[in-house]
Amino acid sequence: MSVKRLRKELYEKEGLRIRVYTSATNSEIASDDSTLRKVSFMRIPTSFIELRGNMLVDNFEKLFLERFGVRIEVLGKDGEAVSKDLSLNKANLKEQVV
């Protein structure tokens, strides 16, 4: 799966905007045509994460890193990182910046 497709599917299905990084420790943003396999530091499982609206942004980002080996950041409508202590539902409604 490409970074672009992941971003598109999370936005269409869950209303979440995310930023994907090239590695778990790098602050370089992955290009849309990169694959998750390329930016992951581990083998990506075939199962996916069950999202719950009451899940905190911080927990979602950590779970994504642990499960898929891909560092992401949840973004607000303004394209900036949202507060880690917001729920995913609230992250969709607010433009609170870290």
Question: Which characteristics define this entry?
Answer:
globular; 98 residues; mainly alpha; disordered C terminus
Question: What is the gist of this entry?
Answer:
With 98 residues, the protein is mainly alpha-helical. The protein has helices at 3-14, 36-39, 57-68, 88-93, and strands spanning 17-20, 72-75.
How would you explain this protein's 3D organization?
Helices cover 35% and strands 8% of the residues. It is mostly helical and 98 residues long. The protein has one domain (3-93). A two-stranded antiparallel ribbon has the order 1-2. The longest helix has 12 residues, at 3-14. It is globular and about 30 Å long. The chain starts with a helix and ends in a 5-residue tail after the last helix. Residues 94-98 have low confidence and may be disordered.
Which helices and strands occur, and which strands form pairs?
Elements: H1 3-14, E1 17-20, H2 36-39, H3 57-68, E2 72-75, H4 88-93
Antiparallel strand pairs: 1-2
Q: What is the number of domains? A: 1
Rg, alpha carbons: 12 Å
Task: Count the beta strands.
Answer: 2
Beta-strand portion reads: 5-15%
Can you tell me the overall shape? globular
What share of residues is helical? Answer: 25-40%
